[in-house]
Amino acid sequence: MDKKQYKYVGKSLPVEDGPAKAGGRIKYVADMTFDRMLTAKFVFSKVPHGKIKNIDVTGAAALPGVVKIFTHENAPGVRFNTQNWFVGQKNPLDQQLFPGAARFIGDPVAAVVAEDKPTAQRAVEAIKVTYEKLPVTIDPEIAVKGNVGLHEVGNPFFSMESGCGDIDAVFHSSADLIIVEDRVETQKVHHAAMENHACAAVPDHKGRITVYTPTQVSVAVRMLVATVLNVPFNKVRVIKTPIGGAFGGKQEVTLEPYCAFFAKETGRPVMLEFDRPASIVSTRTRNKVIGYVKTAVDRNGLILARQTDVIVDAGAYTSNGEVVCRAMNKKLYRSYRIPNQRYTARSVHTNTAVGGAMRGYGNPQITAVTEINLDHVARRLAMDPVELRLKNLVRPFDTDPLSKTSLGNARVIDCVRNGAQLFGWQNKWSRPKDGGRWRKGVGMACCNHVNGYFGATHDFGAMTLRMLEDGSMTLSAGIHDLGTGAVIAIKQIVAEVLDIPPQRLEILDTDTDSNLYDVGCQSSRFIYVCGANAVRTAEKWRELFIRESSTILSCEPEDVRMSEDSVWNVHRPDNRMTHGQMASMVQQRNQIELNVTANYQAPANPASYAANFAEVEVDTLTGLVKVLDFVVVQDIGQAINRGVIEGQIHGAVQMGIGFALCEDIAFHPRTAAPKANYLSKYHMVNSMDMPPVRIALIEEGEEFGPFGAKSAAEIATVPTAAAVVNAVNNALDSRLSILPLTPEKILKALSGKAE
Amino acid sequence: LKVFHYPSFITQESFIIQFQNGGAVVKRIRFIGFDNLADTINELKGAYGRISIISGGTNFTVAKSRRDPDWIVDLSRVRDLQFIIEDDDFIRIGAGTTFAEIASHHAVRTRIAALAEAAGQIGSAQIRNRATIGGNIACASPAADSIPVLAVYDAQIVTAGPEGSRTLPMREVIANACQSTLDEKEIIKEIVFPVNSSRLSAFRKIGHRTTVTRSRLNMAALFEYCEKEDTILNGRIVLGAVGPISVFPQRVSDYLRGRRVNKAFAKELSGLMTEIVTEINPAAKSRSYKVAAVTDCDRCGWCLDDQESRAYKASAVRGLVYDIATHLFGDRFEL
Asked: Which residue out of B16, B17, B21 would a mutagenesis test of the A interface target, given it has the greatest number of A Cβ atoms within 10 Å?
């Protein structure tokens, strides 16, 4: 693809709500108030598994200011799955607003709706729940044996298998093979968005409910709320509020059905706001995954076969417990040329917090499983892990052996080569090992990620672009900017197509009453699908504008010329009109609205790629790890907004290092209580412990992507943990593979070695 | 809670409007906010009900116990609590001195190095600009960073209150996790550090992060050191965040007496410290766990210590020993 100089695309234009967010002026949903608004608060289960025998609400109900108390006895029993985002999606419906049995510590068992927060709090404390205790399981490897089921379906509730080639022929062959096996365990982590989960619902005189929520998928909120309330979809209006971070945590519809139900029942606006412990425990977490992986290579480091078996800990309800198995499946076949593979996945319920969407959607887990293993393969071969990867990585336009579709312009080799050079891998890798208290090590990992849903489900959206009679423009679509820069990216794309300044365009806030269907901000689809939709919409709009202008200018459409601020007939260059003058003339004379709606269906699902390189220093006395240096190279096709991408990558590295070293909700082995339900106990990497992050972008263009762009933000956190773990193992010559590598685990490993 | 009026001068009442039981209720909170200690104590005599004495207010603003105080005694503007005075044998630090001031004070840095080091690592820069040494003592957190330093120096705590003034050694001030022995109306006035030019001191901590982190383990050391002989004449070490109150092992002092600082020094001392941490039995203070559970320290982490974490601390304490030994005596110890 030709390298083109763009006027707006690729530039680091600032995100427009940044100053308002930093200055505290933006109104998040929890900052909103409505006339006669009530407050809702939950009673969360304090037992990990128990049938509810009785809920005594008498004390709470008697408190002045308590409006209504809801339990499983007076709430709809409609079954749903918060992961579902389209009608008819086949995920098990095992959730209810208030279930008859609590299945984890933090399961909502009742709610108080009251005039104010302190009253709601006092009422919640006054509600007494008694349970008939049921057997508890928190260990997925025990759960998978099927002795304890949380739901009728039992455990494991889902299993799947995929493969290509014939692994048995390889593993059982007498050839000179090296086979390396690993067991890798990843933990449940919290999204840690600065904005906790919150939602408001406002009923009106027509029986409609307006839901204000920081959601990533407004159509899913509408569907689930309407389903639970048993009302037509057009009775539910969803307005996306400014999002203070989501990372997948606001992709599932967790709070909205409750809040809408309370509003419907009380006839008054209701605010439901989670505090941090509730956001950590009672929304969604990253699924815990235990992976057993076995890789066969020849003496030259060519991968011949790989078997990967995973157990997914979905937590107490299914949520994405099936879907995440499929998501991990796909990733296994798109990074390396492995002729023979088998993958099996089993998903289990445990009495722990519910898993769900989180940045990378299973990919950081499966990448940890396979990339940690691959470094062990390299060690067994006494081969540089970069060299091992370069021998096996996919090439541009390779075919995915599972879907038989093209990987697109897959530039993972460029990522690894450029990254190794930028990082100074050769020197750092071949440096003699330290023997003292502090030991340095280097590690790397690479990965692929998707661009939307094409190949799995429908993936389309409709976008409307208008010019108002002063020449200013609006664009309406289901754009859910999570702080990802989605709004500025769309502005840059439309501005580039139309050659207008981006500030002339206003992106309207997502509101299901005014914008058309869009699949939402999930599955790394925004740039590749919505961005391409913006190109198509802008192009169609320009056709309309030129056609209508030609009648005003009394010329043929091909004679109409447009510049940033004017439009004219090429034969009468002195007679120019501004866009505003033209728009109002079109209205008054042609009586036409300069309005275009375009549908856009994703035509492909190429892979994006990333490689991470980490240098760490381990203190062998305290077990603390310091990440000294970090390099990220991503194959993104084309940057739409370079500054936003770099910001995404910095944040992703922070998440990934936390995943590798310190973040862990962790459940107490005896009580099943979450150990880290406050940020004071849930340890994240802070800015002072962040390494410098050096970034390079591979921009070789991707077919169908807007200006060649493909996904960049979600993938950024995928290989990070694996790279850091590999670096620690390199430093200590260890095989640590249970995340996070806490100082405890590191010292234990070291003392094991000493013995 | 919304504070509508913060008195800019002296005492008096503040009105807090609480939204409860479906209506707004005006609650009176008496506020004492003098700029001098005498008036503060005088006014404090008449206080009753739930009294919250605050200094920097950094714990108060996040603590659950801030709910419904009847009196708030704000010491942050009491000028006669803010000082650092040195003479030949003592350094006196006003209880209202912030950690930022302590960390950057020349006399503290040169003569009570461990205190400057601890003060410089407490919380974040913003916390250190507000939080005071008196507040850190009064809150009595097991993970407090200043307390092991005060203990290792055997600092004297001078208090004042309606009942008069008294002086007590640091070890008598902390009763239990998050519990001091001070009376409800007793105010910490100043801390007196004995100083001596032949002493070396240092403070180090291990948290979950390098900075802005609560101590999982901390250590203050004080050595009387003869450079000519390269020998520790006398030494003390205090460990924090290993139990409800800081630990001052006599065995370490015995070991350190007359100890030559040879190559094996750090290794031997860490072996001893590992033994000591291993022997600390938190279950022996089980009653204090219950006390801890009803106050605010259920968030600080160490109360929930399981065996894994204790084994970790016993091992990681070696890191603190090497840090301190290397810092004070140079990088010359075998691993």
From this structure: B21
